[in-house]
Amino acid sequence: MGGFLDVRAESVGESVSRVRLMEEGLPRPEPQHEIFRPDGRLIARVDFYWDEHKAVGELDGKIKYGRLLKPGQRVEDVIFDEKVREDAVRDLGLQVVRWIWPNLYRTGVLRERVLRAFARAS
Length: 122
Known about the structure:
Layout: H1 12-23, E1 30-36, E2 42-50, E3 55-60, H2 75-91, E4 95-100, H3 109-121
Parallel strand pairs: 3-4
Antiparallel strand pairs: 1-2, 2-3
């Protein structure tokens, strides 16, 4: 199991997601992968990245829309920024798959979402 541990996980949800991805028989993603524009500017750091499938995965939780808001920031600002970020990732030809906590506890849901993203990329 030591080879499976990864200190790059930024949350319990990301760690649980990695375990579920493994249990669902999916390829091992690279966690916390940075995506850059062709000019070298950083677009995003994504929770999970599958280079061979040109896909990224993101666990969506309510925390970033609540207690992680910066002073003066509104939920609408976070949602808008996330949309702009995702569009920039998609513009590079990457597929984006998102899931929420309940998806992690329903067998097959995460697998099907990720496999659909892989299929869209091919």
